[in-house]
Write a structure and sequence with these properties.
Length: 161
C-alpha cells in the first residue's frame, strides 16, 4: 500500500508520441481461472500519449505452457507486427488475451521475448497488489491504476485523438 501512495500521479496526456519503453520493478501479476499466468518484478511499461500504460512481462516470468498461438496479427507503426495468444486453463479459454512482438522494430527491441495481457480478457491483473482496471474498447490493452489519469483513448469516438 505504501508503495502505491508514494507514486506520483501520471497524466496520459503527458506521455510521448512516439511511445517510450520504461522499466518498472513493481510486482506485476496476471491471473486466469485461479492460476497465476505471470508474475514479475521486471516489467516494461510502454507509455504513449492518451493511452494507459501497457505492461510487458518477460517470457521467462510467464506460464507459457498455458498459452496457444492465436489467429491473425496486427501492425503497430512503432513496435512492428504483433502476434496474439489465447489462454487455456482447465478447459477455460480466453481468445487473444495476450500479445507479443517477436521481431520488434528498432527503438522497441527490448520488447522481444516479452508478453502483454489484456486486463479485460483475464481474471485480473495487479500492479503492486492493486487490481488494474482495463482500458475501454476492444483494441487497446492499457492498464489503469490509481496514479494514472485520462482522458483515455479507446471508448467510442476516441479513435481520432
Amino acid at each position: 500500500m505504501a508503495e502505491r501512495e508514494a507514486r506520483t500521479a501520471e497524466s496520459v496526456r503527458d506521455y510521448p508520441r512516439p511511445p517510450v519503453v520504461v522499466p518498472d520493478d513493481r510486482p506485476v501479476e496476471v491471473f486466469f481461472a485461479g492460476r497465476v499466468l505471470a508474475s514479475s518484478r521486471r516489467a516494461l511499461r510502454v507509455l504513449e500519449t492518451s493511452h494507459p500504460p501497457v505492461f510487458y512481462l518477460p517470457r521467462c516470468d510467464v506460464a507459457t505452457e498455458l498459452l496457444r498461438p492465436s489467429d491473425g496479427s496486427t501492425l503497430c507503426e512503432w513496435k512492428g507486427r504483433a502476434q496474439y495468444w489465447d489462454v487455456e486453463v482447465g478447459g477455460r479459454f480466453s481468445v487473444r488475451a495476450a500479445w507479443s512482438y517477436p521481431e520488434p522494430l528498432p527503438g522497441y527491441r527490448e520488447l522481444r521475448d516479452h508478453l502483454a495481457f489484456y486486463p479485460g480478457r483475464v481474471e485480473r491483473c495487479t500492479v503492486a497488489d492493486e487490481v488494474v482496471r482495463p482500458q475501454e474498447g476492444g483494441f487497446y490493452g492499457g492498464w489503469i491504476t490509481a496514479e494514472i489519469t485520462g482522458p483515455f483513448k479507446g471508448p467510442p469516438r476516441t479513435a481520432g485523438w
